[in-house]
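Long-time lurker, first post. I've been practising inverse folding by hand and with some scripts of my own, and I keep getting stuck on stretches where the structure tokens seem ambiguous. Below is the full token string for one chain I'm working on. Before anyone asks, I'm not after the true native sequence, just a reasonable design that respects the backbone. If someone could post their per-position residues I'd love to compare against what I wrote down in my notebook.
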């Protein structure tokens, strides 16, 4: 007698419990934890869900429906991933479905509302079965179809196995959001016909080209390329020979060349040679040995190394050590901008065994990397924060570079996780070592290292002959009074820029605000142009000629007449990166100026394009937001200018001083990364501010001691845990009342630990009014598990109360 099995599954929905389905007897042997199954949830919705648990126990309160199909031959999610999902759900107080949504590439999450488009044209349809033929036929008539539409077309309840098969064949693209029509990357390869493979045949061929020198050049170029590489692509051949596509086509028509077009991986790097050897200096050798010694005692080690100290080379040696012992490595970076630079260096060492994973990849690329990690094809994976979700096996080392960066924190949607903390737990699951690296560590990380929870290794000597840059401050107020300010540039900064350009060196200018002008104000009545949907001023962008809201994306034409008083005296106040770029072009017309911010790097390869152009000295000056501070390495940069440091320091956030120190020190670290020391000019109205003075002295220790004392006095991390509730509703009175009810309920169990509700700095976003409640919980003397249970119960009661209907509560654990 066969056992009736039931599966508890994770659905890609924000539901608080797992849902149970019954398994048809015939499929008992096909099931495994981590496989995808097709299930119906609700009246008409069909989803692919992940099998979380298999048992013979039916659900108590409802009759289990049957699963509709088992989608995978092998699990796409492994046991350790599911344990990581459990931890994320518990720690960040979110649902497993929300974790699944964040973790899986869209191509692995199928639902009845998922859209499908044809991925290729000119397919030989004689090789397709009837159902595949029908689907492609329908896609000829309509550019995209929902899965539910295809189910109706074929007259069957679930079509996921058919779509999965077509997806794997490259016939269709599956995506939750389909923007431009996707096609697999295809490349044409060239090979010489077999008749000309021997020496005699080749000689006769070349002799026959006496009157066709361009065709002869193409054949000779092919022979040269073939000596150094296994395959020759058509673009490579055209570039080497200088011939047009027509010449290659003519040779193919004559039967000299055979052309073969085929799909290739978008991920690149398959044929890179393993080169790029290097030798440690004494400081690196000491640090490397100390890290290994600390790893013998601790699972997590913090490497505190000054900018340009050669931390990446230390990472590479540690990776090689782990790989030699059969382990695998995850290397996390805070920004996609960094990925290109680091990836090119690491390819020299690891070649095709290096994988890359980040959000700028499209759905198919991410699914491809996922499958390759699942098949253990990569030894090293480099990625942004989402790479922690990949299906690793045998992970031996996790490196979190620039661990202090706020980019590691996911703010929206749930799970609002921090990749550094998640990586530490991931390392624990795999019994792997975790290395955190930074020139300016987060206060919490440095506190953990100082208190013995983490190992601590310092690397305080720059690599080679490079010295720390000379830092000079300029008092903006005094410079104005003395007539030494030209637009936003002091004479000191302007002179340094001119000297750098004259010496064929490069300059980076930092202004932590994008756009042209942040404020459009009426000089008569003081009216400020604000977003219709958010309580923030609109920023003028010269590139679009419009005012933009940086919170919701709303845009409109600049105001010419004040809508409040009718005056035409509209002033632009403040400045962003676009304005700095514009002023430089007026002051230094001979200089070539580039810009690195969110607007100039739109598109998949936007970062790469700007960084490559600057690296190849197509720009003399690079103007950027905080993107320029994040670990970039340009050997020819001699001068750094910080246009206005005040905005960083005077920000209403308990982390403002820590982040200002970090950002100023990191930006300064871009200068003098080779033999020259370089120079940094910091412009400020308060050049004697302690943070600026600590940056000048490169005194992280003093900054840490001051900050950690204040944190203890005012009940902030690392001594207290923070929980932030954002209560939202379209009606201001409703959200005010609901927030006060929630705060009162929280105080019943947590007393003085509850702060607020308060109106945040931006009180309305996307027409939703916001009230914030902050919870400060001490790390000792209280059970954090019980606190989280209390919070979960409070939120359930809040949601069940009819008085709170329509009010949303967003909980962020470890905010900021």
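-- Answer (accepted) --
I ran through it position by position. Result:
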């Amino acid at each position: 007698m066969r056992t009736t099995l039931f599966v508890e599954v994770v659905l890609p929905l924000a539901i608080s419990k797992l849902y149970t389905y019954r398994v048809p007897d015939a499929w008992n042997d096909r099931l495994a934890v981590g496989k995808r199954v097709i299930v119906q949830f609700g009246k008409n919705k069909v989803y692919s869900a992940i099998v979380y648990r298999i048992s013979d126990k039916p659900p108590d309160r409802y009759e289990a429906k049957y699963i509709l199909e088992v989608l995978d031959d092998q699990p796409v999610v492994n046991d350790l991933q599911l344990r990581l999902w459990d931890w994320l759900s518990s720690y960040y107080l979110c649902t497993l479905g929300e974790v699944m949504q964040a973790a899986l590439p869209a191509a692995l999450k199928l639902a009845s509302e998922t859209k499908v488009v044809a991925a290729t044209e000119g397919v030989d349809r004689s090789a397709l079965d009837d159902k595949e033929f029908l689907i492609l036929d329908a896609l000829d008539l309509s550019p995209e179809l929902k899965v539910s539409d295809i189910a109706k077309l074929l007259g069957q309840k679930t079509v996921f196995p058919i779509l999965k098969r077509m997806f794997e064949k490259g016939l269709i693209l599956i995506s939750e959001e389909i923007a431009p029509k996707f096609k697999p990357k295809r490349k044409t390869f060239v090979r010489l016909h077999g008749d000309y493979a021997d020496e005699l045949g080749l000689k006769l061929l070349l002799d026959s080209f006496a009157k066709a020198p361009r065709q002869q050049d193409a054949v000779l170029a092919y022979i040269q390329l073939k000596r150094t590489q296994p395959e020759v692509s058509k673009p490579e051949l055209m570039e080497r020979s200088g011939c047009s596509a027509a010449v290659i086509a003519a040779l193919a028509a004559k039967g000299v060349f055979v052309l073969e077009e085929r799909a290739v991986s978008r991920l690149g790097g398959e044929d890179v040679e393993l080169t790029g050897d290097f030798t440690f200096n004494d400081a690196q050798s000491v640090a490397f040995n100390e890290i290994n010694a600390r790893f013998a005692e601790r699972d997590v080690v913090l490497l505190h190394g000054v900018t340009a100290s050669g931390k990446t080379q230390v990472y590479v040696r540690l990776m090689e050590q782990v790989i030699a012992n059969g382990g695998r490595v995850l290397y996390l970076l805070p920004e996609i901008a960094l990925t290109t630079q680091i990836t090119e260096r690491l390819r020299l060492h690891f070649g095709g065994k290096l994988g890359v994973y980040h959000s700028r990849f499209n759905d198919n690329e991410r699914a491809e990397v996922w499958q390759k990690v699942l098949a253990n094809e990569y030894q090293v994976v480099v990625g942004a924060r989402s790479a922690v979700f990949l299906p690793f096996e045998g992970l031996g080392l996790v490196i979190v570079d620039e661990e202090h960066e706020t980019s590691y924190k996911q703010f929206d949607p749930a799970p609002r996780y921090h990749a550094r903390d998640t990586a530490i737990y991931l390392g624990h699951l795999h019994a792997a070592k975790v290395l955190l690296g930074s020139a300016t560590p987060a206060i919490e990380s440095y506190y953990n290292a100082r208190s013995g929870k983490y190992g601590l290794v310092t690397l305080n000597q720059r690599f080679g002959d490079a010295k720390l840059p000379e830092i000079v401050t300029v008092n903006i107020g005094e410079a104005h009074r003395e007539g030494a300010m030209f637009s936003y540039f002091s004479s000191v900064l302007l002179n340094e820029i001119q000297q750098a350009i004259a010496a064929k060196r490069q300059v980076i200018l930092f202004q932590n605000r994008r756009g042209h002008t942040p404020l459009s104000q009426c000089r008569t009545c003081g009216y400020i142009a604000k977003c219709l949907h958010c309580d923030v001023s609109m920023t003028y962008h010269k590139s679009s000629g419009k005012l933009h809201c940086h919170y919701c994306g709303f845009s409109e034409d600049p105001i010419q007449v004040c809508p409040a008083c009718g005056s035409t005296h509209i002033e632009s106040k403040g400045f962003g990166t676009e304005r700095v770029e514009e002023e430089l072009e007026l002051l230094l017309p001979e200089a070539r100026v580039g810009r690195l911010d969110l607007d100039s790097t739109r598109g998949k390869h936007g970062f790469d394009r700007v960084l490559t152009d600057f690296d190849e000295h197509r720009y003399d000056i690079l103007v950027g937001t905080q993107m320029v501070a994040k670990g970039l390495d340009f050997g020819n940069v001699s001068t750094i200018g910080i246009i206005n440091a005040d905005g960083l320091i005077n920000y209403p956030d308990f982390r403002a001083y820590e982040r200002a120190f970090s950002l100023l020190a990191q930006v300064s670290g871009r200068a003098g990364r080779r033999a020259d020391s370089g120079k940094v000019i910091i412009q400020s109205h308060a050049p004697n501010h302690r943070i600026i003075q600590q940056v000048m002295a490169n005194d992280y220790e003093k900054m840490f001691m001051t900050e950690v004392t204040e944190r203890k006095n005012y009940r902030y991390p690392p001594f207290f845990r923070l929980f932030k509730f954002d209560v939202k509703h379209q009606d201001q009175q409703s959200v005010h009342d609901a927030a006060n009810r929630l705060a009162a309920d929280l105080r019943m169990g947590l007393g003085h630990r509850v702060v607020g509700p308060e109106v945040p700095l931006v009180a309305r976003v996307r027409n939703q009014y916001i009230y914030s409640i902050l919870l400060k919980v001490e790390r000792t003397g209280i059970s954090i598990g019980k606190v989280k249970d209390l919070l979960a119960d409070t939120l359930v009661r809040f949601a069940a109360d009819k008085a709170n209907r329509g009010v949303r509560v967003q909980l962020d654990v470890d905010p900021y």
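A couple of notes from the structure itself: The radius of gyration is 30 Å. The longest helix spans residues 732-750. Happy to go over any region you disagree with.
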